[in-house]
Amino acid sequence: MRPFRENITQKDTNSISARIRQLIRYLTVPLCVLSLFMLLLFILYSLEYTTISRNIATASRFNQNFKDEVDLKMYYFVTGSENEVPLEEVTTAKELAAELLESTRNKESRKAAGSVLNLCDNLSDCIVSIESMEGYDSRMHSLETNVYVITELIQDYMYTYLYHEAGELAAMHDRVWIRLLIGILFSTAVIIIVVSLSLRRSIQISRSITRPVDELYSRVEEIGKGDLSARPPVEAQDSKLQALGKGLEEMVTRLNDQMELNRQEQIRLRGMELALVQAQINPHFLYNTLDAIMWLTETGKNEQAVEMVSSLSNYFRSFLSNGKDIITLGEEELHVRSYLEIQQVRYKDVLQYEIDMDPELDSCRIPKMTIQPLVENAIYHGIKSKRGGGSIFISSRREGDRAVLTVRDTGVGMDREALEKQRSCLENNEGTGFGMLASYKRLKLVYDQELDFRLDSEENAGTTVTIRIPFRTEAGHV
Q1: Does the domain made of 272-470 have the CATH classification 3.30.450.40?
Q2: Residue that wins the pLDDT comparison between 337 and 60
Q3: Distance separating alpha carbons of residues 240 and 425, to the nearest angstrom
Q4: Cα separation of 248 and 225, whole Å?
Q5: Domain assignments of the chain as residue spans, ordered by start
Q6: Does residue 163 contact residue 224 with C-beta atoms inside 8 Å?
């Protein structure tokens, strides 16, 4: 019985082994097919992903300061500060665009890269053309109308390229999901065991790929909507995705820094313009006052000349304001009173004035020398030219969250044509009325669109200047 049992056992064992081997053979075929399918799918995806990510990484090498550096070097060349033109930067950008054009498949991205390539050729031609030009004006005209525009377009098209390649990366994410789903369904239909063994690993692989892609896609969408806040780089097992995420955040940081530098530069330039207009106003007023003192001295009115010198001293002592360009309306009122006291010494018989300022507005902050140039303009262009003299009325009032300042005179005024011309001159920063133009420019520099500057006049009836500005106290910010 033992040999029989042994034979049975061996036979059964051989049968089980055969079935296992057969099962393995049956499983091996679909497993190999599945493996080949998944391998092919992964290779295709890897090639596509590698190409796109390499393109984006390559495009990220584009000099973010390309426009500023090329424009600045060309400006120095045109002005004669340097003898070297930035052809090397243009050549580098051109080579980068050619490299991208060769490896890019997306139609819109190729169009953007091709545009950069063509623009680089045009920019090189413009630079060579400027080198051969003679005369500062022609060079500067070509710089402003050609070079500045082309460098701006090159930078914009490079950003457009990055945008489309990022969109291609997001579209690839959708295609990956479809391919993975097909693989999973195929493996499920072939054999449950293959699915159960490969599903977990497939999900892990897909998550390691799609999660960083999703995060990068979301980040690119946020950047496209204007969110340039600092973020930690996207974490990914893939070194290229990791490098792409890091490069993207570094680009955002550089953009933020550049925007902040531009903002600070604008603030600095506005301050310089404000100081420049201030420097123009002071000599103008001093010239008129010294002229009046000289006139008094020549006519033998020495006591009035001494009084005027004393008033001038008090005026400039008050005017210094500890170096501040922005003062309170109460301080500005003291300046105006001192100025009118000085002017009345000379025009005592023809000049009358009245000041009616709302005490509630004393703490309102305004640019120094806002009202005085308007009063000066009223005297020299209104009262002085009128037979029998006239009066000046200065007032202030509050309308909600705005302060309203009014300077009105009863001088010669202007007809309709002269009034429209003067309004146009103010809007275009032109004109012969220096006092009014200076006051308008200072207010425009500080308040910009918040300023309401109105000029009204009637021939032989006088002129009125009405200024509406935001009411801001010393605790506020101008």
Answers
A1: no
A2: 337
A3: 59
A4: 15
A5: 2-227, 272-470
A6: yes
